[in-house]
Specification:
- By secondary structure, the protein is an alpha/beta fold.
- It is about 35% helix and about 15% strand.
- The chain contains 14 helices and 16 strands.
- The strands form 4 sheets. A 10-stranded mixed beta sheet has the order 7-6-5-4-3-2-1-8-9-10. The protein has a two-stranded antiparallel ribbon with strand order 11-12.
- Strand 8 (about 270) and strand 9 (about 275-280) form a beta hairpin.
- The radius of gyration is 21 Å and the shape is globular.
Amino acid sequence: MAEVIHPFNIMCKPVCGVCNLDCAYCYYTAKPRDLYPEVPDASGFRMPERVLEEYTRQYLEAMPVRCEFGWQGGEPTLIGLDFFRRAVELQKQHVRPGQTISNALQTNGTLLTDEWGEFLAEHRFLVGVSLDGPAQWHDFYRKDHAGRPTFHRAWAGLELLRKHRVEFNVLVTLNSVNAPHAADIYRYFTNRGVQYVQFIPILERGPDGAPTDFSCTPAQFGRFCLDVFEQWATRDVGRVSERLIDSVLHTLIFGVASTCCYAERCGNAHVLEWNGDLYACDHFVYPQWKIGNILERPLAELVRAPKLADFDRMKIELPAACRDCEFLPFCRGGCPKHHMPIGTDPARVNYFCEGYKLFFRQTLPELRRMAEYFKRNQTPPPKGAPAGAARAGGEAGDFAAGPAPDAAMPYKTSLPRKAPGRNDPCPCGSGRKFKACCGRRA
């Protein structure tokens, strides 16, 4: 019987960074030429069936309780629907009794058709759609290769998913243009029935190491999150799931974060490239963080490689400024990609630190109050409402853990409306009992 190892996630890139769009801030579309210059053109970046089958078999062997397949790019739908039909066939072929399989797909939405919708619905894919708000902000940076706007094509993809009753969420990348418009963007989506949203700030560096012009500033990030919270807390508690809010509540209820960027350690959310190369993280797909290739070494061996322990040091060895911070339990230094400089220098800081402090300082009293209601199997009353307005648990009272991990893979798990018992399954999805997993630190 295969050894059961600590749970990990894989974000699979079946076409590397190849995409039909040309978003100005995308960090991944340069990967094909940077990593694999020997491949002559984009048509060569297609995951061969041998890699797909080995990946499926090895991943299922390494994660015998719950196995979550995440598909991303570039634009993963470019590889075609037949690839995903084969992927599902292989999952059914290699699954073992009692093993749970799920699939998540992150897409720009522009290539979806009714045939895609039928397939995704039939096989219960969770789909993340990348949208940066309404057209005036989405189209500023998200254009195709001909320089044409893409919002209406992307929104058509979202509506197609809704038509086929495919579960979806919306991923918004916060940049210098859309970040000042938090309330408008949040209302735009939630007023149109979007229940799961995640906001990820952009920080890309120029040749001199300074943030690019399109990067979100710390002040913009903090104000955006705070404005969204005010909208959510007064009208959408128990109805809308937002990633940062959910992570704070998860920490307050269970003692651990629900996303890797706010956890005590990372190093367990990896990227599998089209040719079987495994990298430490979506934000660190660089030659120095290549762990190996699944055609040469088993996946279960690769995820225990010493290099991953070295990678994890960037998270575990906190910046000096974080160690005595009152908000440390809720961000744990944030994503190592956002550290200035990146690495383990004690003097480094998280670029978005002041934004996080602004958010935590003003929201934690209210979130602590709400967490107590969730622990009692109740949906908290909206901010400012009388305490007697709490509702008993039920469908509207479900607290969703929200999208995770931090990289843009769309992933949603239902968090119990009350804390689990010691012998209950752990809500993190590891397959272990709560007392042997998150409960040890709760």
